[in-house]
Amino acid sequence: MIYYFDVKNAPIRCIFIDDEPLALDVLKVHLSIYPQLSIVKCFSNAIDAIHWMKDNTVDAIFTDIQMPGISGLDLVKNQYPAPHAVVFTTAYPNYAPEAFEFEALDYLLKPISPERIKKTVARIEEFHCLKYSQAHDISLRPDFVYIKIDGQHQKIHYENIVYVEAFADYVKIWIGPEKRLVTLQTMQNMEKALPADLFIRIHRSFIVSINNVVSIQQNGVNIGNKILPIGKNYKESIVALVNKHRLQ
């Protein structure tokens, strides 16, 4: 992994939302061992959390999905695009596609293991790091892209881009299985700028290089060693791509 930014000294402010007291207690235990996180508040419902956030800032929210009144998904939809990281904690895997449609930072299935929490904390730290870094711009050219990182413009040829992933207010440009560059940019701008004959949007959170697609399944695209989801709003584009290149 490549990190380019310095994390601010201030702790990462987190809130928890879950209607099950035991679930809140378990989450507190898991995350209390990380001194970089500050557990600011816990809520038993999304409505109270929404009212609190009107007058308070937070860096990350951990929220259950199925709750009385307003669900965790509805909370995130109403705040989209959120200025903070969002982590869903739920016992139901079937909400994952919709959660990532709204750029969830992570999706934790209960019971949550310490090992899985560790990965989530790493993602939150990276998000926090990016959030407080200086703005990074992007400049696109016919055959390559320049990304500004720490005052330097790094040149990346389109042929080296495997896929682009949304990361809250940023995008990750993956140029290998474990190598990626991060820039302050929107997926909408990336989609408009990248050549349509070389890249295709398959999900709110993913743009893939057509040349790097290994196979296309009903609900996912195999690219390298990863299966990336196909969003329901992008299935027609995938079908058109298949039909265009299908052997008749």
Written account of the structure:
This protein has 248 residues and is α/β, with parallel strands linked by helices. It folds into 2 domains: 12-131, Response regulator (Rossmann fold); 139-245, LytTr DNA-binding domain (OB fold (Dihydrolipoamide Acetyltransferase, E2P)). It contains 7 helices and 16 strands. It is globular, with a radius of gyration of 19 Å. Mean pLDDT is 84; it is low at 1-8.
Keywords:
248 residues; alpha/beta; Rossmann fold; OB fold (Dihydrolipoamide Acetyltransferase, E2P); 2 domains; five-stranded parallel beta sheet; five-stranded antiparallel beta sheet; 31% strand
Summarize the structure.
By secondary structure, this protein is an alpha/beta fold. 28% of the residues lie in helices and 31% in strands.
Mean pLDDT: 84
Name of the top-level CATH class of the largest domain: Alpha Beta
CATH topology term of the largest domain: Rossmann fold
Report the CATH architecture of the largest domain: 3-Layer(aba) Sandwich
Shape: globular
Give the beta-strand count: 16
The percent of residues in helical segments reads 25-40%
H/E element order:
EHEHEHEHEHEEEEEEHEEEEEH
Largest sheet data: 5 strands, parallel
Radius of gyration: 19 Å
Going across the major beta sheet, what is the strand order? 2-1-3-4-5
Low-confidence spans:
1-8
Structural class: alpha/beta
The number of helical elements comes to 7
* End-to-end C-alpha gap: 42 Å
Number of domains: 2
CATH level-4 homologous superfamily of the largest domain: Response regulator
Residue share in β-strands: 25-35%
